[in-house]
Specification:
3 copies of one chain form a homotrimer. Chain A has helices spanning 22-32, 57-70, 88-97; strands at residues 2-10, 17-20, 37-43, 48-53, 100-106, 109-110, 117-122, 129-137. Chain A is of the alpha+beta class. Chain A has one domain (2-137): YjbQ-like (Jelly Rolls, Sandwich), CATH 2.60.120.460. Chain A starts with a strand and ends with a strand. The relative contact order of chain A is 0.40.
Chain lengths: 138, 138, 138
């Protein structure tokens, strides 16, 4: 059995932002030399998400509007978590988007449907954050 | 280490529909001959979900009503993603339901609690779609 | 390849409640003697969740308020699933929070960011429930 570990680093200059990390994950799989297995990709922070969907700018704007409706940032006083930091909405938005994805590796490649792309979604940016790639297989 | 891969195919005649795929996954585990390991089951399309919950018709109607409240299909013009296709709501609904499940395999079987069942949830149907089963273990 | 399986048991005296199970998962990893691999932790019941976020009491209260807004418990008659049991809201709340987490094991330890903690979220308590830990690796 082979395993492989890699971290990705982010420093998004705004509160929220999306980064397509599909090629980074594909690169890590190539480095791992795993032909058949699984790859876990997870945000290492609890106000960020790793998820799979379409790389389409309109949809990404829809996510922004929709998450703000389901878990509004303001007023900050509506959340008991706020005070030291005002990022309770980021914890809730990340809960909807999810922490992690697990993907199949087949023939040394991401085993994906036609439109699947992996994104890092920063929900409380302006600081250094990380995502973890862990690969197991053979 | 053993690995096994299988695709499931769907062509739901309506925009939305649920299919219980627990037996398909159990069958794939049996074919894989894996006794101890993990099985990943994921939608290969970004407007569909694989999730685990109860096989109860009332609950499935509740999901329909609830998802329509949280991410309404219409008016189509409320979403920037819409235009070429009017399926932005399907991307959001799938985000709530999730892309994938990872389940334990123990003694060659799905290691499940008493009511767990695996479903494929089509959220933008009337076309051919696929789900992926990937098994690793020994 | 090594695999390891362990169940955790819960009997929450209220309808809803959160339990930090990070140390239980760390203990299972230690027992498994797996140095590199993956650990799956899932609720075995469909009205409970296993998720990762911050161990902060204010945030946990925010989850309660927020889930009740997105999937209210009452009136019971709003859900077709209700009747024999009035727990449809618990199925929906668990859908938002998620069934499972998959975490990396590196150097024999949970490979976590600075604030990641694993929780069992009971959404329909006053009865015995279980979570499953399944570890694979080497």
């Amino acid at each position: 059995m082979k395993t492989y570990r890699k971290e990705l680093f982010f420093n998004i200059p705004k509160r929220r932002g999306l980064v397509n990390i599909t090629q980074d994950v594909a690169q890590a799989i190539s480095e791992s030399k795993v032909q058949e297995g699984l790859v876990l990709v997870n945000a290492m922070h609890i106000t960020a998400s790793v998820f799979i969907n379409d790389d389409e700018a309109g949809l990404h704007q829809d996510y922004e509007t929709w998450l703000e409706k389901l878990a509004p940032e303001k007023p900050y006083g509506q959340y008991k978590h706020n005070g030291y930091e005002d990022n309770a909405d980021a914890h809730l938005k990340r809960t909807i988007m999810g922490r992690e994805v697990v993907c199949a590796i087949t023939d040394g490649k991401l085993d994906f449907g036609p439109w699947e792309q992996i994104f890092y979604y920063e929900l409380d940016g302006k600081r250094e954050k990380r995502a973890l790639i862990k690969i197991i297989g053979e």
